[in-house]
Design brief:
The structure holds two protein chains of two kinds. Chain A is of the alpha+beta class. Chain A has a single domain, classed as Heat Shock Protein 90, CATH 3.30.565. In chain A, 36% of the residues lie in helices and 25% in strands. In chain A, strands 3-4-2-1-5-6 form a six-stranded mixed beta sheet. Chain B has one domain: Glutaredoxin (3-Layer(aba) Sandwich), CATH 3.40.30. In chain B, strands 2-1-3-4-5 form a five-stranded mixed beta sheet. The longest helix of chain B has 15 residues. The model of chain B has no long low-confidence stretch (mean pLDDT 89). The chains are: A alpha+beta, B alpha+beta.
Chain lengths: 185, 121
C-alpha cells in the first residue's frame, strides 16, 4: 500500500466485518522520538486464539473463512521494514487491538496519506452502523474526533448524508493540518 | 476553522436531503473494500461516487463490502436499483463511476461494457 492511511482503511474494514459498533483509531506522530504509532481498537467479535497465533501469516490464513486475508500481513510488513513493531491482541467476543509502530524518519516508512478522506469515506459508507473515535497527536499537539458528538448535533439527519460527510472531511483535514503545523499529509 | 456549532445550521439546510435507513426504495451502490479493492484504488472510487452523488444531489445509499472473491477485477462496485437485479461492475476508473451514475443510477440504463456479473435476488 502506498499510504499508511490505506492500511488503516483496510483494518477498519476488518473491524466492520467483525461487527464492531465502536472503533477507536489513535495516530501518534512523534518526530522527536523518531516514532509513528497507529493503534486501531474495536469491540467486534474478536479472533479465536488458534487463529490469532498465525494471523499475520498469509499462507496459514484460510481463505474460506474470510476473517482475515493479506491485510494484516501487509500492515505488519510495512511496520517491520522500518525497524518498527507490530502487535495484534484479541479476545473472542470482546474485540481486537492492532498496534503498529514505525520509525518516523525511516526511508521505507510510507507517508500517512489522506487520512481525512479515509475516515470521512468510511463514515459515508458505515457511519449509521458504528461509531468512530479518532485521536491524532503530533508532538505535543492533539486533535480528537468522536462521531457520537457529530450525531448529537444532527438529530434525525443521517451522518451518511453527503453534505455532512463533506463537512466532516473538511473538518478533519483542517484540524489535522493544524496539529501537523501546516501539512495535512 | 470549522466548529461543531456549524453542524446545526448545516443540518437544518439538508434535513430534506436524506432520511435515515430507508433502504429498498433508494438505489444502492456498494463498493468492494477488501485489501484487494483498497490496493486497486477503491478509496478513490468511493470518493468519486460520493462527489458525484453530492454534485448531482441524488438520493443514493452508498455502502461498502469486503472481498467478494473477484480480486483481479477490483476495483468493483455493485449497483442495486429498487426492484431490479444487482449489477456488478469491475476494473473501474473514476471516470467509469461518473458514467455508471449518470447512465444507470439516474437513467436506469445498465452500462453493458463494464458489467462483470449480474445477480437476481
Amino acid at each position: 500500500m502506498r499510504e499508511l492511511s490505506l492500511h488503516i482503511l483496510d483494518i477498519l474494514e476488518n473491524s466492520r466485518k467483525a461487527k464492531a459498533d465502536k472503533i477507536e483509531l489513535q495516530i501518534s506522530e512523534n518526530p522527536g522520538k523518531n516514532s509513528f504509532i497507529i493503534i486501531i481498537a474495536d469491540n467486534g467479535k474478536g479472533i479465536k486464539k488458534e487463529l490469532l497465533e498465525n494471523i499475520t501469516d498469509p499462507f496459514v490464513t484460510s481463505r474460506t473463512t474470510r476473517e482475515v486475508g493479506l491485510g494484516l500481513s501487509l500492515f505488519k510488513n510495512a511496520a517491520e521494514r522500518t525497524n518498527g513493531d507490530f502487535e495484534i491482541k484479541s479476545k473472542k467476543g470482546r474485540g481486537t487491538v492492532v498496534r503498529a509502530e514505525f520509525e518516523y524518519d525511516n526511508i521505507d516508512r510510507a507517508p500517512l496519506g489522506d487520512i481525512a478522506t479515509t475516515i470521512s469515506n468510511f463514515i459515508a459508507a458505515n457511519g449509521e452502523e458504528l461509531e468512530i473515535i479518532y485521536e491524532h497527536s503530533f508532538a505535543d499537539e492533539k486533535f480528537e474526533f468522536d462521531s457520537r458528538e457529530i450525531k448529537k448535533e444532527l438529530d434525525d439527519l443521517s451522518i451518511q448524508s453527503s453534505a455532512i460527510v463533506s463537512w466532516i472531511q473538511e473538518y478533519l483535514a483542517e484540524n489535522i493540518k493544524e496539529i501537523r503545523g501546516g501539512e495535512a499529509f | 476553522m470549522k466548529s461543531l456549532a456549524e453542524l446545526k445550521e448545516l443540518r437544518d439546510k439538508v434535513k430534506k436531503d436524506m432520511k435515515k435507513r430507508d433502504q429498498g426504495t433508494r438505489p444502492e451502490i456498494i463498493v468492494g473494500m477488501g485489501t484487494c479493492g483498497i490496493a486497486a484504488g477503491a478509496r478513490e472510487i468511493l470518493k468519486a461516487i460520493l462527489e458525484e452523488v453530492e454534485t448531482r444531489d441524488i438520493d443514493v445509499r452508498v455502502t461498502q463490502t469486503g472481498c467478494i472473491g473477484m480480486c483481479e477485477k477490483e476495483p468493483l462496485i455493485d449497483v442495486r436499483m429498487p426492484g431490479k437485479e444487482r449489477i456488478t461492475y469491475g476494473n473501474l476508473s473514476t471516470s467509469d463511476v461518473k458514467e455508471i451514475i449518470s447512465k444507470h443510477v439516474i437513467n436506469g440504463n445498465v452500462v453493458q461494457e463494464l458489467v462483470i456479473a449480474r445477480h437476481s435476488e
